[in-house]
Amino acid sequence: MSVLLARGLSLGYNLDHAGAAAAFRDAVAAGPSSVAAHRLTAAAAWIAILFEQGAITIEDYLGQARSDAARPAPNRGLAATFRRHIDRARTLAEQQLRERPQDADAHYQAGAVYGLMASYTATVEGRVTGSLGPARRAYREQERALELDPDRGDAGLIAGTYRYTVASLSFPTRLMARLAGFGSGRERGIALVEGAARYDSDTQPSARFMLVLLYNRERRYDDALRLIAELRRTYPRNRLLWLEAGSTLLRAGRPAGAVVALEHGLVALRQDTRPRAGGEESRWRLAYGTALAATGRAPEADRELSAAIAAASRAWVRGRAQLQIGQLRARAGDRAAARTAFTAAVRLCTDDDDQECVDAARAAIRRARR
Fold it and tell me: Which residues contact 90 (CB under 8 A, 6 or more apart)?
């Protein structure tokens, strides 16, 4: 069964969602009482839903788009698969806890199940408040696993992620989270996730992708790029890792490198006949257009950004493209066109709660009035 689980993980992170689902179904058939088999089957359905909805890069988790923003309803078959297998995984995990209350693995498996439930509730259902109960249970179980077995590195993914997240909240919200039972600490949180990324388990790939997010949040761009390169070697069919690299290079202020990475990715995209994520084309065009604009290739940037607006399914993507177009117009001396684009950016980014974009567009409008 472990071979089937490893195969499913490899296929999933290489964007072969159908193959991953098949491998996990085979794992369930081989081990119907395995919590991990049911949990990973549910996780594969969750990832496939996010892929269809277009939540495909860490930008979706850096604050650009609120989790309760309108999204397409999830595929009914995938949602049913998630619910069926997560319910079975929870039942099995609770049974293991009753039978082996001092077993670190039993606590780990329960924590992993409840963590997945929390993630699904927040990202697919858009109910952040509704995710707090399972999130609290997930954190408690993983902390207990670490108490029972301090070398249990995979338990550090959820424990560390929640600690980091709580530490990033405002003081009143952080205090409420601490009273609710969550720990805090940015450095400790990152260290726990790093430990999970080194630990050989079915959680390792998720921990490595989570570290890309955390390193970007911390502006540790070289660390993020190193990890993205390692992930590309491990999952060579995951074209989105080129998009991730290009976006990280843009945040790092290295647009020339971003152009190179994104052009590699665009070649991979054109050659890849597999299904694309929801709104994927617009994400590539936005990133590429932004990189081209930053390197002074205005006509090409204008073309890519206009195409991003036409292809986008999310308001924040259109808003960020309008922000870039406004900057192009401003550099060309067309203040009226720049203000029009910046105003559109404010409206669109407000619709998706992309405050960073809103602030940048408003500052640009003020500059254009001078």
Answer: 110, 113, 114, 117
Q: Which residue do the tokens 């999830």 mark?
A: 74
CA distance linking residue 301 with residue 309, whole number of Å: 12
- Topology (CATH level 3) of domain 236-370: 1.25.40
Q: Do domains 1-218 and 236-370 have the same CATH topology?
A: yes
Q: Which two tokens stand for residue 213?
A: 């997010």
Whether the CA torsion 57, 61, 64, 67 is positive or negative: it is positive
Contact criterion met (CB below 8 Å) for 247 and 224: no
Q: List, in sequence order, the alpha helices (H) in 54-203.
A: 76-99, 104-123, 132-148, 156-167, 171-179, 186-198
Cβ pair 286, 302 in contact under 8 A: no
Evaluate whether 288 touches 246 at the Cβ level (below 8 Å): yes
* Tens digit of each residue's pLDDT (9 = 90 or more) over 152-184: 999 999 999 999 988 887 766 776 776 667 878
- Sign, CA dihedral 247-249-255-257, equals negative
For the stretch 296-324, pLDDT in tens is 999 999 999 999 999 998 999 999 999 99
DSSP secondary structure letter of residue 353:
T
Nearest partner of 358 among 122, 126, 57, 65, judged by Cα:
65
* Separation of alpha carbons 17 and 9, rounded Å: 10
CATH hierarchy code of domain 1-218: 1.25.40.10
Tokens 């490893």 belong to residue: 6
- Cα–Cα distance between 63 and 65 in angstroms, integer? 6
Which CA distances in Å does 305 have to 56, 63, 308, 339, 347?
A: 19, 21, 5, 17, 17
The full set of domain ranges for the chain reads 1-218, 236-370
